[in-house]
Structure formats: C-alpha cells, structure tokens
C-alpha cells in the first residue's frame, strides 16, 4: 500500500503520529460534513426517509468491517453510552464476579465498577506480568485462567490502549462462550485499523468511538450487540427506535415494540444529517483500503523504530503481540523529561504520553520522514 497523505489536509511540516488521540479528517469526510451543514439551510431538502436510510447505510458498512448484519448494529454518541447499554443488560447471579484488565480505559473500568457495586459482585482486575517479552501471551493466559462459570462478564479493550498489546480475543471469546460469560469489547482503539471479527472472536457486544480509527467525526460511534441483547432494556426511550417509526402517520400510536435486532440501542436523533454522511464517507474509504493493508503499512513504516529500540536495548514484546497502528514505547520515568516533550514540540512531532508509555500511533498519511524525525529526537535523549 502506498502513502495516502494526499487524501488528507494535514500540514506538510507536521509529523502527526497521534491517531490514537484523534484522526485527521479525510478530504472526502470534510466535504461530506460541509455538504451536510449546508443542507439544513433548506430544510425541505431533508425528507422523512432521510431520518432512517442513511443510518442503515452506515450500519451496513460497519457490519462489513466487523462481520455483522446491519440489524445488530446501533448508532451511539460515545463509547461510554454503548458500554452502558451492554453492561446493564448482563444477567448476574449471586456470587458471580466480573473481569477486566489492569489500567483499562476509564470509561470501561468505571462502568464495570458501577455494575459490580450495584450487584454486590467482585471486580477482578487482571494485572500484566512484570517482564516485557512474552508479556501479552502470559497476560492473556492469566485472563483465561480467571474466567469460569462464576464469571458474569468480561469487559476489555481489543488492544491495550496505552501499550498497543494485542490480546488473544479468539481464545478469550471461546472461553467466555464455554462458561456462559458475556464478552464485551471496546474496539475504539482497534476497529478500522486492525482485523476484528465479532463472529470469529465470539464477541457479545463491541463498542467503538468513531473519531479515532474509524476516521469519523467526534461524538459519534457504532456498537454491535449480539442476538443475546435483542430483548434487552435500552438506556433511553426514543420514538425512533420503535417498530415502524419510519411511518410518520403512526407516531401517536405509541408502539411499545422496538424495531428488530439492536435498533432499541440507537441514540435518539441518530440520523445526524451532518455526522452520518461524514461517517459513511470514512467507512467507505477504510473498506476500500482494507484494514489488513492499513496494519501492514504501519508495520513496515515502524521497522526503523523497532531496529532503533533494539539497538538501544529497550525491550518490546514480540511483533505478533503488538499492534502497529498503536505502538506503546515504554520509557523509564527518568527519560520522560520536560526536555523530551519540548523537543517533540519543537520538531512538530505530535504523539501521546500515557503514564510510562510514549504512544506512537501512525496511519497511512504518515511516511518514512515522520519516523526518521521521531528517531532523531529520541536518539538525543536515550
């Protein structure tokens, strides 16, 4: 795959290695948003079917990305919204517990902690091993060891949001299925840049914010809910989620029945006439590239960095266990100095620092020059 920077509006002198923070707009996404803004200037251009059909198109595209039917997908305003829909519908018996991993993203941890407090259930947090090489494999094994018939739910990200470590979701999903455990995955830092198949990994709910690797606008997201959730209770009661809500002549019949599949979990006013066209354009481009190609591009791009870290004696887990679109480089606190941060800024290198990790998150708009400049700065401090 060739460099795709020409499809974005990034400044030429900017080394943007921070896709895990927020993606830049594709030019096509930007234009879709502008067109959506202008559309409301003449409200007659927005027809009744526009409240529903564009949403179905977006669901269908997302379904292709994760191997799901459109009917099991909901439009959400944030990952935390989607997570609450999923977690609050998990059945739990007295004496059961929930599982997550150490230093999970706050929204995931906080929602699960609340669930455990309300149900007087233990929250088991699985810590990583202290060593680096073989770390992810052993961490996954420890997660699997703790899942049993008394585990009501496992909530975790597909990759660790600080380190970029790739958990064995297939093995975890299979263990959850064997023990009748709900498996809820936060895909915000993976879907769109890394292969994720909800059928293959036996995921019960997959939640994704759209403004990172889905290249969509902020305050949008998508969620997959398996058939287990088709009779669940949503966190809000919108008229738009009911059966036949697209027939405006029947609105005051006040139907109790929801639409099919995961329709009940859609956020109210999901037919955002600005955001939905932007998200649709972004998903079309991702599908055209292919997530395997995006991941391969990033892997090849980071080869000089991996060689540099090896030369400096900084350990990293085996490549098969580490994502390439979100690459967490561990630095001891003594090396994470204000001078290093200022040097990044001076060279217009944008990335994230999360605790003891420098999070390097490239995409297809990055090139070798971006990585070379990063290595030059690092070399002055390590």
TrEMBL record:
Lineage: Bacteria, Pseudomonadati, Bacteroidota, Flavobacteriia, Flavobacteriales
Transferase among keywords: yes
Matches recorded under Pfam families: Aminotran_5 (PF00266)
UniProt-listed InterPro entries: Aminotrans_V_dom, PyrdxlP-dep_Trfase, PyrdxlP-dep_Trfase_major, PyrdxlP-dep_Trfase_small
MF annotations from Gene Ontology: transaminase activity
Record key words, sorted: Aminotransferase, Pyridoxal phosphate, Transferase
Residues of the Aminotransferase class V domain: 51-304
Name used for this protein in its record: Aminotransferase class V-fold PLP-dependent enzyme
């Amino acid at each position: 795959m060739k460099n795709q920077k020409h499809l974005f509006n990034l400044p030429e002198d900017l080394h943007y290695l921070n896709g895990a923070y927020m993606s830049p707009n594709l030019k096509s996404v930007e234009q879709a948003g502008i067109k959506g803004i202008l559309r409301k200037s003449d409200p007659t251009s927005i027809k009744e079917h526009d409240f529903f059909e564009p949403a179905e198109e977006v669901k269908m595209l997302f379904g292709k990305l994760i191997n799901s039917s459109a009917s099991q997908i909901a439009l959400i305003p944030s990952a935390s919204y989607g997570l609450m829909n999923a977690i609050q519908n998990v059945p739990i018996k007295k004496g059961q517990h929930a599982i997550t991993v150490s230093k999970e993203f706050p929204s995931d941890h906080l929602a699960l902690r609340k669930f455990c407090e309300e149900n007087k259930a233990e929250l088991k947090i699985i810590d990583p091993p202290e060593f680096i090489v073989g770390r992810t494999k052993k961490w996954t094994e420890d997660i699997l060891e703790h899942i049993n018939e008394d585990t009501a739910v496992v909530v975790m990200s597909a990759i660790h949001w600080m380190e970029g470590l790739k958990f064995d979701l297939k093995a975890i999903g299979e263990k959850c299925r064997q023990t009748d455990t709900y498996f809820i995955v936060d895909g915000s830092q993976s879907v769109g840049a890394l292969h994720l198949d909800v059928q293959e990994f036996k995921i019960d709910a997959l939640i994704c914010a759209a403004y990172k690797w889905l290249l969509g606008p902020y305050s949008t997201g998508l969620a997959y809910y398996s058939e287990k959730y088709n009779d669940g209770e949503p966190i809000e009661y919108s008229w738009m989620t009911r059966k036949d809500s697209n027939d405006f002549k029947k609105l005051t019949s006040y139907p109790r029945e929801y639409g099919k599949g995961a329709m009940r979990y859609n956020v109210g006013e999901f037919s955002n006439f600005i955001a939905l066209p932007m998200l649709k354009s972004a998903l079309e481009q991702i599908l055209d590239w292919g997530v395997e190609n995006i991941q391969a591009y990033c892997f090849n791009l980071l080869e000089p960095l991996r060689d540099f870290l090896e030369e400096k004696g900084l350990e990293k887990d085996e490549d098969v266990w580490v994502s390439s679109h979100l690459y967490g480089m561990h630095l001891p606190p003594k090396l994470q100095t204000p001078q290093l941060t200022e040097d990044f800024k001076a060279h217009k290198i944008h990335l994230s620092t999360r605790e003891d990790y420098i999070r390097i998150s490239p995409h297809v708009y990055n090139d070798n020059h971006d990585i070379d400049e990063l290595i030059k700065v690092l070399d002055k401090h390590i």
